[in-house]
Amino acid sequence: MDGAKEVTDEKIRTKDNIVAYETILKERVFEEFGETDTFTQQFEALTTNPERVTYMYDNMVRYDLLKGRYWKDLKNEQAARRHKKKGDNNFARGDIPSALKHFTRCLMKAETDELRGLAYANRSAALYKLNMYKECIEDIDLALGNTYPPAQRPSLLHRKKRATQMLGKSKVPEYHEPTPSIPGKARNRHTPHAHCVKQVEVGIDEYSRRRVLATTEIPAGQFISVETSMVNVVSGKSDLYHCHHCVNVCYNPIPCLTCTQVVYCGEKCGAEAWYDYHQYECNILSPLKQWVGYCKSLLLGVKMAFLANLQTFCNDFTQYLLPMENIVNKDIAKDNMFLALATSVIYYFIRDFTHFFSKKNIGASNFDDQFKDDLFRYLHMAYVFSAEITEAKPIFGDDPQLPYEVVDIEKQSFGLGIYPFFMHFRHSCSPNVVINYYGSKMVLRTTRKRLKGEELFVSYGPHYYYHEQSDRRNFIWRLFYYQCRCLACVDEMPIMALFEDEVRSENYVTVAANAKRCFLEGSVEIKAALMALLDAIDTEFTMEKYFYTTALWYHYDLVANRRRVP
Ligand SMILES: [Zn+2]
Ligand SMILES: [Zn+2]
Ligand SMILES: [Zn+2]
C-alpha cells in the first residue's frame, strides 16, 4: 500500500509543474517593473472568472510566453518501425509483456495500413503466448483487414485456427473478480449516480458541508457502493492497457488514426470518444500533456468542457456536480492565479488549434467570456473533486519460507475520474472506508464498525499510516483550503508505518499467505475473520487495527486485480 503514498506525492508535485509557469510569468513582470506586487494586486481586484483568465492570457501574450507551446502531433512511420523492431526482439527473447507494449506503441505511431497490419499480426502472436485467445483472434482479423502481405496470410490464418480451438477448450479468464452489485431491494434510491446500499445516507450539515452517514449499525467490511465514473481520463504508465474512453482493461487496443496519444478497446469506444470530445481534443492532446505535465486533472477539466456540448452530460452535470460546486469555497477563484493561468493557456490552445469555436458559433457575442468562465469552473472542479483510479499489482518475493514477502502491493494510478457519490464523503487521515477499483468501477467498503448516525470518511490521499501530520495538513490545505481536523490530526498520531516490522506477527504471515492464494486461485474467504477482528477492537489507533485494516485492504485489492500482465 506504499503506492497510496506515491499517488499522493505525485498529486502534490503536479501542482508544482503548473506553478512553475506562474513563477516564469512573475519573473518577466519583475524584470520589467522591478516588483510584482502591482501585478498581483491587479489580479486580486478582478471580480469575474473571464476577467481573471483574460488578464493572465494578455500577460502571457505580452511576455511572449505562449509562443512555441503548440506543435502538431503527427504520426511517425520511422518511430513506429523502431517500436515494431523492439517488439520483435523482445518477443524473440521471450519477454512477451514488453513485446506487447512495443507493438501497441507501433500501432499508435504508424502512418500506413501496411505497418499497422504487421503490428497487429505480431501482436496477435504475443497475445497467443499470453493465452489471450479472444484478443489474438481480434488482432488477426484487424491484420487481415490492413493489406497484410498475401504470402504471409496462411500462417496468420493457421494461428487464428489454433486460437479458435484453444478458445473453445479453455475458460476465458476474467480481468478481475466479478464487480460487486447490490440487489434491487437493498439499493438506496436517493444517492446520486451510484449503486449504494440503504444503510448510508448523504446529508448536508448546518455549514452546508457534504457528509455521508450511517443510517443503521454497519459492520466492518460492509460493501457500500459501486460507482461508474461520470467522466474520466487515462494517463500514466498503464495508458497502453486501458481504453481511453471507457477505461476498461484492454490488452489489444486500437489507436486513433489521427493522433499518437490515445487507444480504445474497440471501434465503438473510438467512435463514441470522437463524437463526444476527441474530435476537438485530438489536435491538442500531445502539446497539452506536455504543457500541463502530469496534471491529469486539467486534462479531465478540458474533457468536461468539450462534453458540455452534450445534453446528457449537461443533465448529469446539473443534477450531480452543480450542487457540489456551490459547496466549494467560492473564494478560491479570487486568489487562485494558477488556475486562471492554466485556463488562459488551455483556452488559447482550444481557440487557435481546434475547430471547437467554429462549431460553437463563435458569432454569439458573449460566447468567448462564457467559455472562459465554463473552462475555469470545469478545471477547478476536476482539480478538487477528481479521484485517482488505481490498480494494484502484487509483488511476490523469492523465498517460499517467507510468504509475507509476497504481498507487497504496488499501487499505480492510471487515470482520474469524477465519481459523484464519492464526492459526498469528507476526508479523514484515518478513514473508515476504503476504495478499490474493479477496472474503472469504484467500490467502497467500511473498515470499521459504524453506529447509527456516525459519519463515514474516505481519504483524499493523506493517511496517518504513511504521512507526517504536517505533510497531511499541507496537502489538504493546498488542495482544499481548510485545516484537517480529523481524529488522527487532532490526536497527533505518529506514522504507523514506523512500526511495520513489529506488525509482521504470525497472524500477518497467515493472512498474507491467504491473500496470495486468493490472487492466484480466486477468492478465499479470509474477509469474515478479518472483519470480526476489526469489529472486536474499539480503540481507534492501535497496531492491531492498523494491521487488520491493511490486510483487509490488501485482500480487496487482490480480488479486484487478478489478471495482470507483469
Ligand atoms: Zn472502451
Ligand atoms: Zn486522436
Ligand atoms: Zn487529518
TrEMBL record:
Residues 198-461 form the SET domain. It comes from the Eukaryota. The keyword Metal-binding applies. Residues 243-282 form the MYND-type domain. GO terms for biological process: methylation. Signal peptide: none annotated. InterPro entries: SET-MYND_domain_protein, SET_dom, SET_dom_sf, TPR-like_helical_dom_sf, Znf_MYND. GO terms for cellular component: cytoplasm; nucleus. Keywords: Metal-binding, Methyltransferase, S-adenosyl-L-methionine, Transferase, Zinc, Zinc-finger. One of its GO terms (molecular function) is protein methyltransferase activity. This is SET and MYND domain-containing protein 4. The lineage of its organism: Eukaryota, Metazoa, Ecdysozoa, Arthropoda, Hexapoda.
